[in-house]
Amino acid sequence: MCGGCVGTEYPERGTTCLEGGSFLLNFVGCAQCGRRDFVLVSNRAEGLHGGEEIVTYDHLCKNCHHLIARHEYTFSVVDDYQEYTMLCLLCGRAEDSISILPDDPRQMTPLF
């Protein structure tokens, strides 16, 4: 992975977890060939590991196929919540948790 290709390494992305694609605003250009073009997604793999869905892939320079970053996205269901995480030098790090119930108990206000 190449810190010279990105503006900020592992930027904080809040709850934005990407299962695919690239965060192009953080791509400053390829450190190997010097060009700033689209980023290819390569070596995509999906699988289940211990009840967790894991998606991994590589971000490559479109011109010289230099490895910019490795992307990892995970999804799991814990209790009554869908849990999402993302970790990538280019796209950043993020976590999200969404209730699978019609009304999220964390968002409920007490009646008294």
Properties at a glance:
Immunoglobulin-like; mainly beta; 112 residues
Fold and architecture overview:
The protein has a single domain, classed as Sandwich (Immunoglobulin-like), CATH 2.60.40.4240. It contains no helices and five strands. It has a five-stranded antiparallel β-sheet, with no helix packed on it. A hairpin with a 5-residue loop joins strand 2 and strand 3. The model has no long low-confidence stretch (mean pLDDT 90). This is Protein Churchill.
Q: What is the highest CATH level, the class?
A: Mainly Beta
Count every beta strand, where a strand is a DSSP E run of 2 or more residues.
Answer: 5
Radius of gyration: 17 Å
Number of domains: 1
SS strand fraction: 35-45%
Secondary-structure element string: EEEEE
Looking at how many chains there are and whether they match, the oligomeric state comes to: single chain
CATH superfamily: Transcription activator, Churchill
Q: Please state the average pLDDT score.
A: 90
**Termini separation:** 53 Å
| CATH-derived topology | Immunoglobulin-like
Largest sheet report: 5 strands, antiparallel
Identify the CATH architecture: Sandwich
Query: Which structural class best describes the helix and strand composition?
Result: mainly beta
Brief digest:
Keywords: Activator, Developmental protein, Metal-binding, Transcription, Transcription regulation, Zinc. This protein is mainly β and 112 residues long.
